[in-house]
Automatic annotation (TrEMBL):
Gene3D superfamilies: CBS-domain (3.10.580.10), Glucose-6-phosphate isomerase like protein, domain 1 (3.40.50.10490). This is Arabinose 5-phosphate isomerase. Belongs to the SIS family. GutQ/KpsF subfamily. PROSITE patterns: CBS, SIS. The keyword Repeat applies. Residues 51-198 form the SIS domain. The record marks 69, 122, 166, 207 as: Catalytically relevant. Residues 224-283, 292-345 form the CBS domain. Keywords: CBS domain, Repeat. InterPro entries: CBS_dom, CBS_dom_sf, KdsD/KpsF-type, SIS_dom, SIS_dom_sf, SIS_Kpsf. The keyword Phosphoprotein does not apply.
Length: 345
């Protein structure tokens, strides 16, 4: 291991408040951009395409592995691929693999090994063992194939990820190489999604929780108010007689319907304020039907909940609710912005 310097403990170090200014950050971001441009300009697209095709054609599982920060990236790429549902995909810790976990690999499986240097001892030890199990080996390295990259020589396919340098002050910490690995892996997975023609429903089936899942799965009927929760009234009802319904249902509006519950229009608390300001005491003689909006935005129960939110926020001005109607314009519910937010959308 050699001799490591003995550092003073933090308690003995003089107190000094470190600062980072915009003048410090700007050149680093510029350097990172140059390094990423170097990667994009020099990436061999034929190697990238061969890698993507190997993942698409994998007859078995696809495992990713790596050491240190490359291992973290490998785990993330594996989880993203697994979330698509096309193939069994997972992360294989290299040390654990050498102590039994390699039993998860079967003939026809693909093992992707991520390494900046291509000389990681753990991966070089794992590669021949995985090959003996019948796996197809792919290395992703920033060292070009050859004597300087023994991992590439040990694999069936190597993809060179061109690296100009790290923006670390010492040029050592993997703060650019890992960004390149992540960009490459995620971009290839996006290409696989296109090639497999992944549908929203397929994607949603593997994301039942969180905002992604709710956006893809929740429909209006799942979050709308219905039946006794609806603020219904008739067009002949007096405005002042409906104040209790207007305020007690928590929707900020009235849904004006006929005897068969066909939607006629809507009357909001904002309409109430405007009518009171314009008519004064005459408001006691006005019906809801005289002052309601007879051309409100509506939505169906089968529409996606996220579509309802987009419709609420669309021009010319945002609204706080949408009446939910069927194909015959019969009211079956109401969906509110508060309800959407409460549902996590």
């Amino acid at each position: 291991m050699g001799s490591l310097p003995v550092l003073a403990s933090p308690e003995c170090a003089p107190e000094r408040r470190a600062k980072v200014s915009t003048s410090d950050l700007a050149p680093l971001f510029s350097a990172q951009r140059r390094h990423l441009d170097h990667f994009f300009d020099r990436l061999d697209m034929s190697q990238a395409a061969a890698f993507a095709q190997a993942l698409l054609d994998a007859p078995g599982a696809v495992f990713f592995t790596g050491v240190g920060k490359s291992g973290i990236v490998a785990r993330k790429i594996a989880q993203t691929l697994a979330s698509l549902g096309f193939a069994r995909a997972g992360f294989l810790a290299p040390v654990d693999a050498l102590h039994g976990d390699i039993g998860a690999i079967f003939p026809g499986d693909v093992l992707v090994l991520l390494s900046k240097s291509g000389v990681s001892d753990e991966l070089l030890a794992l590669a021949p063992c995985a090959r003996a199990k019948g796996a197809y080996l792919i290395s992703l390295t920033s060292a070009a194939s050859g004597s300087d990259c023994p991992l590439a020589a040990a694999c069936d396919l190597n993809v060179h990820l061109p690296l100009q340098g790290e923006i670390c002050p010492f040029g050592l910490a993997p703060v650019t190489s890992t960004a390149i690995q992540m960009v490459f892996g995620d971009t290839v997975i996006a290409a696989i999604m296109e090639a497999r023609r992944l549908s929203r429903d397929q994607y949603a089936s593997n994301h039942p929780a969180g905002k992604i899942g709710k956006t893809l799965i929740f429909k209006v009927k799942d979050v709308m108010k219905k039946q006794n929760e609806l603020p219904l009234c008739k067009e002949g009802d007096m405005i002042m007689d409906q104040l209790t319904v207007l305020t007690s249902k928590g929707c900020g509006c009235l849904l004006v319907v006929d005897e068969e519950h066909h939607l006629i229009g809507t009357f909001t608390d904002g309409d109430l304020r405007r009518t009171l300001k314009a008519s004064g005491p005459a408001i006691f003689n006005l019906t809801v039907g005289e002052m309601c909006n007879r051309n409100p935005r509506t939505i169906t129960a089968e529409a996606m909940a996220v579509e309802a939110m987009e419709k609420m926020e669309s021009p010319p001005s945002p609204v706080q609710f949408l009446p939910v109607v069927d194909d015959n314009n019969i009211v079956c519910g109401i969906i509110t912005l508060h309800g959407l937010v409460s549902a996590g959308l």
